[in-house]
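Lab notebook: predicted structure, single chain.

Context: the supervisor wants predicted structures on file for every construct in the current expression panel, including those that have not yet been purified. This is the next one on the list. No modifications to the sequence; it matches the entry in the shared construct table.
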Amino acid sequence: MKRIAFIGECMIELNGSPFGEMIQTFGGDVLNSALYLSRALSCQQSNQLEVFFISAIGDDPISKGMRERWQQEQINCQWVLEDKKYHSGIYLIQTDSNGERTFLYWRNNSAASHLFQHPNFPLLANALDEFDAIYLSGITLAIYSDNDKTQLINLIAHLAKLGKEIIFDSNYRPHLWEDHQTAKYWYQQLLPFISLALVTDDDEQKLWNDTSINMTIQRLHHTGIKHIVVKSGKDGCYCSGFQPSILKVAATKVEHVIDTTSAGDAFNAGFLAGYLNHLPIQQAAEMGHLLAGRVIQHKGAIIPKEYTQPITMTFFNNEKH
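Prediction complete. Output recorded below exactly as produced.
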């Protein structure tokens, strides 16, 4: 069985109003994608891919409870390291009438941001040699110190040299960076080792001043990235480096958007469920849109399983190889 490692951060999520109803759950871009991918794969009768989450959490009951939930979602948590010094981060989501969200974060000195300092990290780094694919995001890169960023990039370079599939969601968040130039510097160190980029046009415009999706695609190909998917919200996505050379896939129509949190993460999961199982790119992108479309009709980063399971079961029961 092949294995994919999702390297990143998961935080405790508080969803609602500070002066009203508040729901506690969890979320984080990389974890969101790992979880939705695991759900999608569970609907395939011949699944040959195991999903791992790679991170650090606190040793408190809430953090341990999160890990139990991930395991219930069939995510392998062998390399979720417990940290006795640092706790898991926290974030608060508030959404407006259009489903757009506002975040407040308490993540400084989170356990995940100190992953590279954990005494068991050398064992983890060696274990990654046995994986087939590695997934990380711009947020993964942003939360580490400069020394740890360098360690991460060296590790990714090593894994790429071994022939591992390196998958990257650029997920640019300005508040996590000192300034644009600092972010661009670190992205430029990482991008040459990426084999599949899953990016959002809004993020690429903010960071690189791209004026078109074609400009984004050409810039990323110029860094050496072979396969590129540019997500463009309700306008669908653009896939480049596959066959045909540039393919536009329309988004799933959604009448009532409740919360856009983790829409891109869900798309990535659906796309990877198809891509890593060698479905045609058109079908992989359609699966991404289906999952994202379902997620934005509910509150929170992680929506109940009963809302995602029917569409993934229907899709994979009707897939065409």
